[in-house]
Design a protein that fits this description.
Neuraminidase, 5-stranded mixed β-sheet, 4-stranded antiparallel β-sheet, 13% helix, 31% strand, binds calcium ion
Length: 489
């Protein structure tokens, strides 16, 4: 299609008049090549402006000072002076408010779509409410945290309050994923209350795709249970904080890992009062399939493996919260997941910042929840640090990824749908639905906890448009999203 249009234009415009005198197949090819090179350059200009800016409302972004009259960074163009190019309208990636979760849900986190009903479930650990009490524990009304069923129109219902762990008087439901047995599995993060291996994996028992109200403990002895993803009969979760001494010489300040349990194993725990599987989290534990360290970067956050997802080929992708390093764990030829197959696919210490556009200078230095969308074959990264969503195409073995920024905004209260410390994402109801954690600590773009909790939504059709344009751009320059180490070039 594209080729035939070029040919038509070439014949009609005769851009290289002198070649028309002696028209041999060679000169025709040469002229065509030149014309295609010219066309590619024009398209590149148009798309560079676009791929870097990616944001039709660049001047209206966020609540911060960098508006149209604000301080534009080097390389930015004012809205309206950017070439439109030949690739159609720029996608509108500005998030809008998907749900206002009300005053009882300060700090939402993980999401899962139930495989039988298509219903979206959202965990609300409510860590933000720890700020209200002198002992840093959530008040009575919020100790267990909640499970919300969220509808496609943004309405929601509180379907259960998680039972508390007696030892801490609290529960912290974070990552959640629907098992092949139709039950929901949940990471209960107790690390903020007690660092002594108190975190657990819980089963929210479901019948006909709906929670019955019963919650069972299936794994116990975790440090900081964080993200979760099922793939077939295997459940993977991340533990973000193993005990490790900081080493100034090497810059290693933290570590975490990925654990795997089969459905068979888990099915023997929890039901009919059966005890939980007891582990002691760490790199040597038998279920630990990946162990990675955290190199000091930026704010010096030592939190390790956090976001996790599995692509259509069974490759496990995960990233460090503390520094944004991304990893891939591919199954071996026997379908086993082993530490020796962990690859670093994104080296955040040695990354090239975004080169131009409104996000010029931005770096990926934090990976909270990640989400794999099989339709677009892309992984979405929640950058809690930078109030941004990045995405990348899974790369082949031995290659590295090139995350690009889908959206980024300045500090905000989130009420207009802007990102307010994004932590998890899922495709639902025609949107990329993004959870805003909004529980800041020094150094993040998000400076203030400002309830109510919010979910943001970016139109999925616009994201498809964006990905298609990126693909056209990449194919013209043979860049291949998986082949280079920098972003948004
Ligand atoms: Ca997380
Ligand atoms: Ca905020
Ligand atoms: Ca907020």
């Amino acid at each position: 299609m594209r080729m035939s249009r070029c040919k038509t234009q070439f014949t009609a415009c005769q851009p290289y008049g002198r070649t028309s005198a002696i028209r041999t197949p060679y000169t025709r090819n040469l002229a065509l090549k030149r014309f295609n090179a010219l066309l590619a350059a024009v398209l590149a200009l148009a798309l560079c402006a676009n791929a870097d800016a990616q944001n039709p409302n660049a001047g209206q972004r966020g609540n911060g000072p960098r508006g149209q009259q604000g301080q534009r960074q080097r390389g930015q163009r004012p809205q309206g002076q950017r070439p439109q190019g030949q690739m159609g309208q720029r996608p509108n990636l500005k998030p809008t408010l998907f749900a206002n979760l009300g005053d009882r849900a300060y700090t939402p986190d993980g999401m899962a779509i139930h495989s039988q009903t298509g219903q979206l479930y959202l965990n609300v650990p409510n860590f933000g409410r720890m700020n209200e009490t002198p002992d840093k524990k959530k008040p009575d009304s919020a100790q267990g945290g909640y499970l919300f069923a969220v509808n496609k129109d943004g309405s929601f219902e509180n379907v259960l309050e998680f039972p508390i762990l007696e030892r801490t008087g609290q529960t912290g439901p974070m990552g959640i994923s629907c098992g092949p047995d139709g039950h929901l599995y949940v990471c209960d993060n107790q690390y903020f209350y007690n660092k002594d291996y108190c975190s657990r994996i819980l089963r929210v028992v479901c019948q006909d795709g709906k929670p019955t109200g019963e919650v069972q403990v299936v794994v116990d002895g975790i440090k900081l249970a964080n993200g979760m993803a099922w793939y077939g009969d295997k459940m993977f979760y991340t533990d973000s904080c193993f005990d490790i001494d900081s080493d100034e010489a090497t810059g290693v300040i933290g570590s975490g890992g990925v654990f795997m349990f089969t459905l068979d194993e888990l099915s023997k725990a929890g039901f009919d009062g059966a005890p939980a599987i007891k582990i002691k989290a760490g790199p040597d534990e038998a279920h630990c399939v990946a162990y990675v360290k955290v190199q000091k970067l930026g704010r010096g956050d030592n939190t390790g493996a956090d976001g996790i997802c599995v692509d259509k080929d069974g490759n496990v992708w995960f990233g460090n919260f503390g520094n944004g390093f991304m990893y891939c764990l591919r199954p071996n030829e026997k379908g086993e997941y082993k530490q020796e197959n962990v690859e670093t696919v994104f080296d955040a210490l040695n990354q090239t910042p975004v080169q131009r556009g409104p996000y010029a200078g931005a770096k990926l230095e934090c990976c909270d929840g990640i989400y794999y969308d099989a339709n677009l074959d892309r992984v979405f990264i929640n950058d809690s640090n930078g109030n941004a969503i990045w995405l990348f195409k899974p790369c082949a073995k031995g290659e590295t990824i090139r995350p690009t920024i889908l959206w980024k905004n300045d500090d905000t209260d989130g009420m207009d749908g802007s990102l307010d410390q994004p932590c998890e994402a899922v495709v639902y109801g025609g949107k990329l639905v993004i959870v805003n954690f909004d529980w800041p600590f020094p150094g993040l773009a998000n400076s203030k906890l400002d309830p109510p909790g919010t979910l943001s939504g970016i139109d999925y059709a616009e994201i498809e448009k964006y990905v298609k344009r990126m693909e056209q751009f990449q194919s013209r320059f043979n860049g291949g999203e998986g082949r280079r180490g920098s972003q948004n070039r």
